[in-house]
Design a protein that fits this description.
82% of the residues lie in helices and 0% in strands. Helix 4 packs antiparallel against helix 6, helix 12 runs parallel beside helix 15 and helix 14 packs across helix 15. The longest helix is centred in the middle third of the chain and has 37 residues. It has 21 helices and no strands. By secondary structure, the protein is mainly alpha-helical. It folds into two domains: 218 residues, no CATH class; 196 residues, no CATH class.
Length: 495
């Protein structure tokens, strides 16, 4: 058995790489590339994102569990891998053909868009070799870390070397597509050292379709929200709005992802407590985990909300200042999404209600589809309105989760919502601080020293306000966190 500690370190390393490098490349590309061309890229990327799940057809999630169950049986391992790989190949080929034929449905005969569309198709074909689920099931996290580092560095260097002109969008697309292909090929040849292909009869594929379809829906039901917004924005034909939406989403997702990734860590332990009948320990961990999560994510969200214009200016330059309000809205949406994730992952999923999650998500997604359609057919192209429909739909999803949890008496939600409200009220003080600082020390939305000083003052005063309220209310989580920091400092001094 491989070391859990080393696996955890490697996994955290992968997450750090997947946060740092997109920030570096995204910031550079946003500044270099023409805004319209980058809009074309984001529009095509939106369409590609729709096809990608069908290429792998739920194999990732299903395969992760299936391989984990048979990894000690070489014969069964080869058989499971072969059947899932063959199925993935067939699905990828079919999906790629449909993707190529779908071009007229989404775009006109613009030669730049057509080139981007074709080059991006390489990423779709590359899904044939997408077997990361095998590496994760076999706990090859060290390999995944080194491979991810290599690919990320290769991508970064290539972008800096070859993307220098504002119209190098096709070159940029090619780098992204080839990086994806190389990434998957390395994993494929690594796995092929230990796993062999075996013959699989057609009859053996039949039992796979139902669970794979369920996994496909379960894992990609979230596409009915922000992805659907982007799809409608693509159809409006205003590509720059797609860029505003995508960039705002990327900023908030990358920053909030540092915290939100922590939710998944507790799921195995929660499932374990339920499995052995330790309901009290389960409830305590859910309440404590959600409180710690809210402790960090809510001030982060409110901070991004008030500094939305500054964040997009720093990330994308003055060209994308039009996405400032979207960044602020995405920050607010993070709180709704966090609660959805806590109730969905930590409570419903651990209690075995995956189907219920899927059904409710589809209901909320259909609501978003209806609202987006109303906007589209009334010629409303403002991207903020499309994001608001997602926030309303996800709030509806949260309500459905809460009603079901209360009805089934799975856990009392009073504790979770109590501290959500508390930390939200504390973070709400950031708003008057923002306006007061800008009243006393106004600056232009241009990246210079006064701009950075203004931003720093707001952040420092907001932090002081939040910490002051935590001290005043004698917040136990704050003092626990403070204790860990002091303890870490003492260890560093001793070493």
């Amino acid at each position: 058995m491989k070391s859990i500690k080393l696996n955890a370190l490697a996994y955290m390393g992968i997450r750090v790489l997947n946060i740092i490098f997109p920030i570096l490349t995204g910031t550079y590309v946003a500044r270099v590339l023409d805004r319209t061309d980058y809009g074309y890229f984001n529009s095509v990327d939106t369409i590609l994102s729709f096809f990608l799940p069908f290429a792998t057809y739920g194999v990732y999630n299903y395969g992760l569990r299936a391989i984990s169950n048979v990894k000690d049986n070489k014969k069964e391992l080869n058989k499971v891998f072969s059947s899932l790989f063959y199925l993935c190949v067939a699905c990828t080929i079919i999906t790629s053909v449909v993707y190529l034929l779908s071009y007229p449905l989404f775009f006109n005969s613009n030669p730049v868009i057509k080139k981007i569309f074709l080059v991006m198709g390489v990423q779709l074909i590359a899904q044939i070799f997408s077997i990361e689920w095998v590496n994760e099931a076999l706990e090859n996290y060290s390999f995944l870390f080194y491979k991810t580092a290599f690919i990320r560095i290769l991508m970064l260097v290539s972008i800096f070397l070859f993307v220098k002109n504002e119209h190098d969008i096709v070159i940029y697309t090619l780098i992204m597509s080839l990086s994806t292909l190389i990434n998957y090929l390395i994993s494929y040849f690594w796995i092929k050292r230990d796993i062999k292909f075996v013959k699989v009869s057609l009859e053996e594929f039949k039992p796979l379709f139902l669970p794979l379809t369920a996994m496909l829906i379960f894992a990609n039901a979230n596409m009915l929200f922000t992805f659907l917004d982007r799809l409608f924005l693509v159809k409006t034909g205003v590509d720059v709005n797609v860029s505003y939406y995508t960039m705002a989403q990327r900023i908030v997702t990358v920053i909030a992802g540092v915290v939100t990734g922590a939710i998944g860590v507790s799921v195995p332990r929660l499932s374990y407590y339920l499995g052995i009948g330790k309901k009290e320990e389960y409830v305590n961990l859910v309440n404590r985990g959600s409180r710690i999560f809210n402790f960090f994510i809510i001030p982060l969200s409110f901070g991004l909300m008030i500094l939305g214009p500054q964040a997009i200016l720093l990330y994308g330059s003055e060209k994308y200042i039009g996405g400032a309000n979207l960044t602020s809205l995405f920050a607010v949406r993070t709180i709704i999404l966090a609660l959805d994730t806590i109730l969905g992952s930590q409570i419903l999923f651990t209690n075995g209600f995956e189907k219920r999650i899927t059904v409710y998500t589809v209901f909320a997604g259909v609501l978003n589809l209806i609202l987006d359609s109303l906007l589209y057919f009334n010629n409303i192209i403002t991207p903020e309105y499309y994001l608001i429909t997602t926030m309303l739909s996800e709030s509806f999803l949260l309500m459905l989760y809460a009603i079901f949890i209360h009805k089934k008496k799975l856990i009392s939600l009073r504790h979770i919502f109590k501290y959500t409200m508390r930390y939200s009220l504390f973070a709400l003080t950031f708003v008057p601080i923002y306006f007061l600082v800008n009243l006393v020390y106004p600056v232009k939305m241009v990246i210079n020293l006064p701009f950075l000083i203004n931003m720093l003052i707001i952040m420092v005063l907001s932090a002081i306000s939040y910490i002051g309220l935590l001290v005043w209310t004698k917040d136990s989580i704050f003092y626990e966190f403070l204790g860990h920091v002091i303890s870490l400092k003492k260890r560093i001094k001793k070493s």
